[in-house]
Design a protein that fits this description.
The protein is an all-alpha fold and 342 residues long. It is built from 16 helices and no strands.
Length: 342
Amino acid sequence: DALAVLVAYLPLTGLAFGLSDLVVGNHAPPLEVAGYRYFLPHFLLGGLLTAWAAARLAARRGAVVGALVAAPALCAGLFDLALVDPTFARAGTGFHYEGYNFRSASKALLGKKNGLSQPEVVAYAERYPPPHRQDLYVGFGYHHALKATQRTPAPASPDVPAVLAGYPARFAPELARGVGHYLRELSRYVPDRVPDVHAQLAAWHAAGEPWLADVVDGFCQHWDFLLESRSAAQIEENGTWRRGAPAGLQPAFAAGQGRLAGRLLRRGIPAERARVEAELAALERGLRPAYLAGLGRGLADGGRVPALAPGLEELVPDLAERAAVTAAFEAEADRVFGPARP
């Protein structure tokens, strides 16, 4: 009778789930796998059932037969051995992930439970060195835009001046980029709002809003850690949004595309370099200066070391254009990290 629970658990759960309208997790990429944590009881009971079966067979037919039954379940855990570094060159690998999205920490600082005033939030942000400090301000912009639009009964657009208010002016570009991140996530996960986003960007452009270029810059980036498997789609979507924008707004989109390209080049993944080369080759000539300026800023996002992406000469063979990339790189690095030491 006790084993009936172990045996029947999975089919009964699958039947109940199939008859319901439940959604497993509904997590956004790249964390779709987080939804499967709801199956942990199944894995627990499956492990117990495997152990019981292996023990019974070992007692009746010998240890070898029991080990053969248990072996597949045990081998499933071998992937954990990838965390072991016998050279100790990278100690503590199992305690953290590379590529942490530090922007997400902003949500905690703005949370109601912490009850922090805006000056206190700014004081906390100032404790962090660049570029983490800038990442926090991007996150502040995102979450302020998200909260403000969620509080309204009808769909509303972010009030960018309200988002910028009260924060140090030097972080206005990051805050505005956070608003752009929000609009991109909104258009991605609520497709019905895509026309609204198009209309809002066009309205801001017609009004000559000074922060719009930074909003568009953030709009062209990816809020989460961008997997290589998704970078091609991000590049393609950016091009589609740029072509659908008013002519006067397209340079801002090209600059945002360039920043993303610089970030991708800095990662050094050959497939992504090929995508950047194809994007740059297909770009209208008049948009190249804006794109290359964004490229330089994207290369500076991680700091001055390494200074510029290997192979920049091949990507941008024209000396004047390459000088423009370098100038944008230095200006952005100075803005974020401070002037370079002589």
